Amino acid sequence: MLSNLQARDAATVLHPYTNLAALPQQGSLILERGDGVFVYDVEGKPYIEGMAGLWCNALGHGREELVEAASEQMRRLPFAHLFTGKSHDPAIALAEKLKELAPGNAAKAFFCNSGSEANDTQVKLVWYVNNALGRPQKKKIISRIKAYHGVTVASASLTGLPNNHIDFDLPLPQVRHAGCPHHYRFALEGETEEEFASRLAAELDAMIQAEGPDTVAAFIAEPVMGAGGVIVPPRTYFEKIQPVLEKYDVMLIADEVICGFGRLGEWFGSTALGMKPDTMSVAKQLSSSYLPIAAVIIPNWIDEALNRQSEKIGVFGHGFTYSGHPVAAAVALKTLEIYERENILGHVREVMPHFQQRLRAFGDHPMVGEARGMGLVGAVDLVADKASKRPFDAKRFAAAKVVALAQEEGLIVRAIGDAVSICPPLVITEEEIDQLFDRLGRALDRAESWAA
Ligand code: PLP
Predict the structure, then answer these.
(1) What is the Å distance from ligand 1's center to 223 Cα?
(2) What pLDDT sits at residue 105?
(3) 115 pLDDT above the threshold of 90
(4) Residue 221 CB less than 6 A away from ligand 1
(5) pLDDT score, position 323
(6) From the CA of 118, how far away is ligand 1's center (Å)?
(7) Is it the case that residue 156 has pLDDT exceeding 90?
(8) Atom 13 of ligand 1: nearest residue by CA position
């Protein structure tokens, strides 16, 4: 029986990533407030936010400083844009800060409102810049199976998940998907992580050869794949992939939308994984998601090519009304200040071994085929049979069952295919990590009798 609010919700809100047909029976979990790593539903029941919202609310709830940064900026200048040679202090200061933090030769930041917009911008920049460089045939972008890069037309094409393509008439014809670097699921019998990485690099090389190297412009990768099921690449993966890209002059785009700003214990996941990207997309933890803001960080050579195009065309014809919105930029700046002042990276490094140890202990659970992760993100992969790695019948929605049981236990986690993913706020304490995994453990134990 739905509550009044649930019934109104089901009647009027078109929900993203939801089984729309099932929602009117199940009803939404309606949240009202948050405090630290906890959120509370309208009945006052607390939950550990084991997903930091959508991999984004790094500082947890109730940070007055962020509220103040927003209200101060709203009072001073609630809106200003960056079009036609206009600017404002929060955007300038944030671009400077991103340039300072980013590894490599970052030159400038282009602001967007979401990860999808950032990755759409990446695609457009690749095309535009290759036209500027006089190689209009070099346009294809290689992503990977199970990658998640967003849902707008170009970024959904980069995403390597069937649900984002089926019946949406995607992907775009310029996009290809290389093999997924998930050792547990895709390695051959007896293949080591290093051998698997070598094979993936050889397959990428063959794919670029088959497409024609002069037609392949870019390769996009999350350092650790998030919404595809938290997939940590096999050892030596990027070490082997990058020389292939260099050989064919294919640029590397790092999608740092989840990994950026401390998730893996470094400012950027690229550093943690040994990636040397040409450009990066950042979002989510950039503002701890108190307000939407994202950015594409570009190096000098792209900036110079864009300048040359402006000389030719007269304008860089791309931008959003809310690119670098002053209130969002002010909140992002304050977020980055808090990360530094409170040494959030140091905290992540301190608690992540405990997080990983508790997570990986689920590898012994009868329902879990693999417990994997890195830093403060992880997943447990559910299997009907551990020895053969046989998954549950998809129609049983095993991961969704575990997520529903976890919710009863006061924990929010997320089902992704057969995986249950966990990605708490970066500020989570060891004690809260214990509470999180105790609750997940109870949910898994209860699911075991359901599965039997
Ligand atoms: N890239 C990655 C790695 C993501 O995880 C996401 C969202 O989860 C996106 C891009 C898309 O971001 P948004 O939902 O803000 O458009």
Answers:
(1) 13
(2) 86
(3) yes
(4) no
(5) 98
(6) 9
(7) yes
(8) 115
Measured in Å, residue 269 CA sits from the centre of ligand 1 at: 15
Q: Which atom belonging to ligand 1 lies closest to the Cα atom of 226?
A: 5
CA atoms within 13 A on the CB side of 351: 21
String of b and e for 73-99 (b: at least 16 CB within 10 Å)?
A: beeeeeebbbeeeeebebbeebbebbe
The CA distance from 239 to 356, in Å, is 24
CB–CB of 325/332 below 8 Å?
no
Is ligand 1 within 6 A of the CB of residue 121? no
**What is the average per-residue pLDDT within 301-310?**
95
Structure tokens at 267: 């400012």
In DSSP terms, 176 is beta-bridged to 142
Predicted pLDDT of residue 27: 94
Q: How far does the centroid of ligand 1 lie from the alpha carbon of residue 228, in Å?
A: 11
Does 120 sit in the ligand 1 pocket, CB within 6 Å? no
Name the residue with tokens 């929605």: 397
Q: What ipTM did this prediction achieve?
A: 0.99
Ligand 1 atom nearest 119 alpha carbon: 10
Query: Read out DSSP for 16-79?
Result: TTS-TTTHHHH----EEEEEBTEEEETT--EEEETTHHHHT-TT-B--HHHHHHHHHHHHH-S-
Ligand 1: which atom is nearest the Cα of residue 114? 15
Mean pLDDT over the full length of the chain: 97
Atom of ligand 1 nearest to the CA of 292: 15
In the prediction, which pLDDT does 452 show?
Answer: 79
- pLDDT surpasses 90 at 69: yes
Structure tokens belonging to residue 357: 């140890």
Helices (H), 146-182: 153-158
The CA dihedral of 206, 209, 214, 218, to the nearest 10 degrees, is: -10
Give 290 Cα–ligand 1 centroid separation in angstroms. 16
The verdict on the CB of residue 116 being under 6 Å from ligand 1 is yes
